[in-house]
What we know:
The chain is of the alpha+beta class.
Amino acid sequence: MIETERLILRRWKDSDRQAFHAMCTDPRVMKFLGPLQTRAETDAAIDRQNGFLDSHGYCFWAVERREDGAFIGFCGLKPGAEDTPIESEIEIGWRLAHDQWGRGYAREAAQASLDWGWASTDAPAIAAITTTNNVRSWGLMERLGMVRAPEDDFDHPKAIESLRPHITYRIARPRG
């Protein structure tokens, strides 16, 4: 578990399933991520993240707001997406419910995830990917100090055709 001033990043619970499914059926949230997801798909995604946590010690953790315990999305680290230029790296990612956007939660959770990654892994860098049009996401990558790696831009094989063009960002392990 990772705690910040306003958030808790933690293992997924069964009680997160309905809220996560609602988030993944919101067209605003899914605009740059692909089609709206079925309950079976969102349940499988939660199970996959808990599996990463069990096998690797990290995942895209559930994000809970400290003040009221509300599930607001996910953020964290996982093995890089298969069939992408970051497959052998650690990937950082996030997704928050639309009504939580613009409050600084994604940045707070992402910075905490990076800090955890540097303290808990020997990764020389952490990578992130997003579709080229997802300005909010790559903007956060840049605010975190990540640097675009245009040589690793690619067409994501698992994305729908309109979202296939992806850009890659990385941040190197801090020195010292």
